[in-house]
Design a protein that fits this description.
Rossmann fold, 8 strands, globular, alpha/beta
C-alpha cells in the first residue's frame, strides 16, 4: 500500500509538471511569501572597473526557489523610452559581480539593455551556507531566479529577456536555457563545461581509475570535515604562478591575483572553493537536453583558449539555425573576461536585439 501511495504521488507530480494540473481548492496552495535573508551589502563602488557616466546603478536582491537571497548590481541606461530588453549575467566560476559579470552588465546597459550581474548562491554578497560551495542544480536556479526578478520589473519587457554566462557560468547559462523558456537568447562566453572538467580533468585527462581515486579523496574529506566541524577550503590560486605552470594557470593568476581582477570577495582571488564543493559536479553531466533548446544560443571562445573544446563540443549538440559559434582570433581564455578589444560587444548587442 505504501508503495502504491508513493507511486500515485509521483504520478501526480509528473502530471502536474507536464500537463499543468491546477489545485482545486485554496487550501491546496502553498504560501509563496519568501523569507529574505539579511544581507550585508556595501554601498561603496568596489568594482575592478570604473563606473560609466552613461548608466544608472543600484544594488538589488531577490530570492531563488531554494530560499537563498541573491545580491545583484543593476545597470540601466540613463536615458531610455518604454520598456527595456533585459539581460542577467553571471560568472566566471568563482568570480563575483564586481569582476567580469559586472563589466559585461554595465556595457550592455550602455547599449540599451537593463542588465543585472549577480553573485551566485554561497558566494560574494549573496546568501547561502556553507560558503564557497556550488551546485549545478542551484546555480541553474540562480539564473532562473534572476529571470523571475527581471520579468516583473516595471521598465522591462518580459518577452525580451536573455542571459550571459562567462567561463563555468557559460555552461550553467546553456543548462538554464534548456529549462527556462522565458529566456529568448543565451550567450556563453569562453565557456567551461564544469561537470566534464570536474570529472574528467583538463583536456579529458582523467581515466576511470583517476575518477575513482578522486571520489575516494572527496569522501575522505567529507568525513574529516564532519569530524572537525568545518569545511576545508582548497586554498585557491597561488600568489604567483610557477615558471613551469601551464599557460592557463598563469592567465588565471594574472587576472585574479593582480589589480586587474583581484576582489576581496572573489572565491578565486582568495581561499578557493570548499574541497568538497566538487561532489555534485563529479556525479552528473550537463547538457543532456541541450539539443532541445529552441531559443537562440551564441557560443564565443578565444582562438587560443585552452578551454575552446568545450564550446566547440557543445555547439555540436545544438540544433537550429539560431545557434552560432564565434571564435575570436588571437584571444585566450581570460581575454574574454575583461579585454574590451577582444570581447565582441557589438556582436552581443546585435545577437540579443535580433533574438529578443
Amino acid at each position: 500500500m505504501r508503495k502504491l501511495i508513493a507511486f500515485c504521488a509521483a504520478m501526480f507530480f509528473i502530471a502536474a509538471a507536464v500537463f499543468g494540473v491546477e489545485p482545486e481548492e485554496e487550501g491546496n496552495m502553498m504560501d509563496m511569501s519568501i523569507h529574505m535573508e539579511e544581507l550585508e551589502l556595501t554601498d561603496d563602488w568596489d568594482k575592478v572597473f570604473p563606473l560609466s557616466d552613461e548608466v544608472n546603478h543600484r544594488k538589488v536582491t531577490f530570492v531563488n526557489h531554494f530560499g537563498i537571497t541573491l545580491a545583484a548590481d543593476l545597470y540601466e541606461p540613463k536615458e531610455y523610452e518604454g520598456k527595456l530588453p533585459a539581460i542577467a549575467v553571471a560568472g566566471p566560476f568563482g568570480a563575483v559581480k564586481e569582476q567580469s559579470s559586472g563589466l559585461y552588465a554595465q556595457e550592455m546597459a550602455k547599449r540599451g539593455f537593463l542588465a543585472i550581474a549577480f553573485d551566485p548562491s554561497f558566494t560574494g554578497e549573496s546568501g547561502g551556507y556553507p560558503r564557497n560551495f556550488n551546485s549545478p542544480d542551484i546555480n541553474v536556479e540562480d539564473f532562473q531566479a534572476a529571470v523571475d526578478f527581471l520579468s516583473v520589473q516595471d521598465n522591462v519587457d518580459p518577452e525580451r529577456i536573455g542571459i550571459i554566462g562567462i567561463c563555468g557560468w557559460g555552461g550553467m547559462a546553456v543548462q538554464a536555457a534548456a529549462l527556462d523558456t522565458r529566456v529568448k537568447a543565451t550567450a556563453a562566453m569562453t565557456m567551461y563545461d564544469m561537470s566534464r572538467n570536474t570529472a574528467l580533468g583538463y583536456f579529458d585527462s582523467i581515466d576511470e581509475e583517476g575518477r575513482y581515486q578522486a571520489r575516494v579523496a572527496y569522501n575522505r574529506q567529507r568525513t574529516e570535515d564532519f569530524r572537525n566541524g568545518f569545511y576545508a577550503l582548497s586554498g585557491g590560486l597561488l600568489e604567483e604562478a610557477p615558471a613551469d605552470a601551464p599557460q592557463y594557470v598563469k592567465d588565471y593568476v594574472a587576472y585574479y591575483k593582480t589589480e586587474r581582477g583581484y576582489h576581496p570577495r572573489s572565491v578565486n582571488s582568495n581561499t578557493g572553493w570548499a574541497v568538497t564543493a566538487s561532489g555534485s559536479l563529479m556525479n552528473m553531466r550537463l547538457f543532456e537536453y541541450a539539443p532541445e533548446i529552441r531559443s537562440a544560443v551564441l557560443l564565443v571562445h578565444g582562438e587560443n583558449a585552452h578551454s575552446r573544446m568545450y564550446s566547440e563540443d557543445t555547439y555540436k549538440l545544438l540544433n537550429g539555425d539560431n545557434k552560432e559559434l564565434l571564435i575570436i582570433p588571437g584571444a585566450n581564455h581570460t581575454d574574454l573576461y575583461d579585454n574590451m578589444e577582444k570581447i565582441p560587444f557589438d556582436r552581443l548587442q546585435e545577437f540579443f536585439l535580433e533574438n529578443m
